[in-house]
Inverse folding.
């Protein structure tokens, strides 16, 4: 093999590595963006209204009738 071939092979490998890292970074960023912190889903035991609230809350008040509800799990 000629030295030029080694250089182009090295450059190609370097490009592939950089491209792979960039792709991995993009992939990670997209994964984070596509999976945001989901709001908690509540279903009112009085009026059956389904609504969401902050993920941290244990109980949430129904916006329709004001009854305090437990989180609704699917
Ligand atoms: Zn309600």
């Amino acid at each position: 093999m000629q030295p030029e071939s080694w250089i182009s092979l090295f450059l190609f490998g370097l490009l592939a590595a950089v491209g792979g890292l960039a792709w991995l970074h993009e992939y990670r960023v997209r994964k984070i963006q596509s999976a945001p912190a989901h709001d908690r889903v509540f279903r009112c035991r009085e009026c059956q209204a389904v609504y969401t609230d902050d993920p941290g809350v244990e109980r949430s008040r129904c916006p329709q009738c004001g009854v305090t509800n437990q989180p609704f799990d699917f």
